[in-house]
Amino acid sequence: MSVLRPFKASDLFRFNNINLDVWTETYGITFYLTYLQRWSDLCFTQESPRGRLQGYILGKAEGAQTEWHGHITAVSVAPEYRRLSLARNMCQRLEFASDEIYKGYFVDLYVRCNNALAIKMYEGMGYSVYRRVREYYGNLGVGKDGRDEEDAFDMRKCLSRDVAQRSIRCNGRDMIVSAHDVS
Length: 183
Fold this sequence. Notes:
This protein has 183 residues and is of the alpha+beta class.
C-alpha cells in the first residue's frame, strides 16, 4: 500500500517521473523550496511501497478576511498511477489542513480550460468554476470555439467556515476576467 506523506526537499531529485507530463506545470527549485519552507503542512507526496514517487501536491494559504483560503498550486500524478484516486486523496488532505489548521473559507485551484479530464475530476470532488481567467497560462492564440487555449478556470470548493457558500457561484463559466485581475 502506498503512503501519503509530507513532501521533503530531497523529493525534488526523485519526481521527474511525475513532472514529465504535458499537463504538469514545472517550476524552478527555489519555488518548490519556498513552498516547503512556508507551507510544509500543505505539501504532500504519495510514495509506493518500493519507494517510487507516485504523485505530489503543493499548496499554500493566502488571501484576507472572507477571501482567506487554501490554494492548490500543483497536483500531479505519474501516468502509470492515475485513476487510483491518488489526486483525490492528496486534495482531501490539503482541504482538511486548509479547513482545520488555516481556517480558510474555501480551497481554489487553476486548471486549463481545455483539460476536460481534470475539470471533470475536480467537479466530481465538489469543486465548481468560479470564473474564467483569460490568458492565465500565457497566450498561444485562439483555439477551437474562438477561445484562448491558455485560459484557466478558477475552481473553488467551500470549506466549513463558509456557511453561506459565498465563495462559489453557479454561473462561473460566464464570469470572465483578465489574468491581471487575479493575484
